[in-house]
Amino acid sequence: MDDYPLLNLFWTMLWFFLWIMWLFLLFRVIMDIFRSDDLSGWAKAGWLILALVLPYLGVLVYVIARGKSMGRRDVQEAKERDAAFKAYIRDAAGTEGGSQKGGHVEGLSKLADLKDRGAITEDEYQRAKSRLLV
To answer: Between the CA of residue 66 and those of 38, 70, 76, what are the distances in Å?
Structure first.
């Protein structure tokens, strides 16, 4: 440990950190190349070869040339995921339709209101209630 000064340790840690960051950027660029819909197959192959054969230069050129569209694709994908999640929550919570728990409560209250106003008889109320709860 005496032959490796503290400043050299910091420099080594800095270079290791930068190398890890570059690896993350390389994988991010490769993922973006494959998910991009506006590139043809040949263009995807060309970008991939450039990023793998000349990795530092290829990643730098890709980020300069297609960085804005990469960000737009991220935002669009996040919006689609959010919309799908919200639709799933609405479906699971049963706020739409009469087959979920929320629909049962709403349907029963409507039936009780109709019965109280005299629009339906007790027999009709019981039949509708049994259909609703099944």
So the answer is: 11, 6, 15
